[in-house]
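Chain A, query sequence.
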Amino acid sequence: MSLINENFMKLEDSYLFSTIAKKVAKYTQENPNKKIIKLGIGDVTKPIVPACLEAMHKAVDEIGTAQGFKGYGPEQGYEFLRKAIVENDYKARGVEIAEDEVFVSDGAKCDCGNIVDIFSSSNKVAITDPVYPVYLDTNIMCGREIVYLPVTEENGFIPELPKEKVDMIYLCFPNNPTGTVLNKEELKKWVDYAKENKAIILYDCAYEAFITEENVPHSIYEVDGALDVAIEFKSYSKTAGFTGVRCAYVIVPKRLKGYTKSGEEISLNKLWNRRTCTKFNGVSYIVQRAAEATYKEDGKKQIKENIKAYLENAKIIKEGLEEAGFTVYGGVNSPYVWLKVPEKMTSWEFFDKLLEEVNIVGTPGSGFGAHGEGYFRLTAFGTKENTIEAMERIKNWK
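Chain A, predicted structure.
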């Protein structure tokens, strides 16, 4: 008799975005002539930029020759990409990261879920609420105890330090779903907490390219002491439009330590490297050449234009909702806008009314956790035309 991992039974029956997709598909089938504007899932709409396409084409031609053919590559990522990451994403910001502390992967979502492999299931995990579902679900799958950290209007969407000792802490800033940020002083409190409690911070900054304000760190390693306590996740999905191409990376500093039950210090970099070599064969050479091109002069310029366009959409959404009378957060350093739904209405009820009455799709806040109830997320990843039309529909909505 094959026993299952019964922790899976504690999960919701359906992943949040799968539920939304089913609802939208049903409505579309019943109303085939309606134009649905989707501002729900955080998928990009702009094509891969020319610099990345050119790099991919060259790589395809290269591996079609005997001299340029590539078989299995290094599981941690090719040196050319890891070097570009170190130089552009870290040294340029005054942070010293070694190339063997960089692990190239097929997506930050995968990394955020897979990283739990190197930690004990007995660890107590702090997770903000509302939260990107992957952090929560992957730890429920492992049977870990979860400590929820409310992120609400009342605390300015700044999570408070745990009142009890925890071993792992998930932080995501700019935040998904609220679109809010932490400044360096606020983030330093978490680094200090982690040091005092020998905890590890799992820091997801997939949206750092959208930061527009000063004193908002693009990397947790800009905060003193973070290299001793933090693992960082970054992605090319929302910056370079790689949601379908798949490429990201995780930084695991060599000075990071975990502990055995007897108290022996163990290198987390060494553990993650061992896990990577065992369970992963690396990202394709073609994709990694495309990722490298994001750091070239043309690539940077083209990607910056795309991000600028998404931020313009965010501004349109934020100002349109405010004009319509909604209370709104985010949308300044993030492609996400977090709005309060009308009183006496749940976030799923608001989802249904928005879909049925103005044919716009968003994401119910309750899908991100209990403290997301009463809120709703819209994304700036649609086209400008659709974004403008969506706001006009909402402003004219009775």
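The CA atoms of residues 49 and 305 lie 10 Å apart. The chain is about 35% helix and 15% strand.
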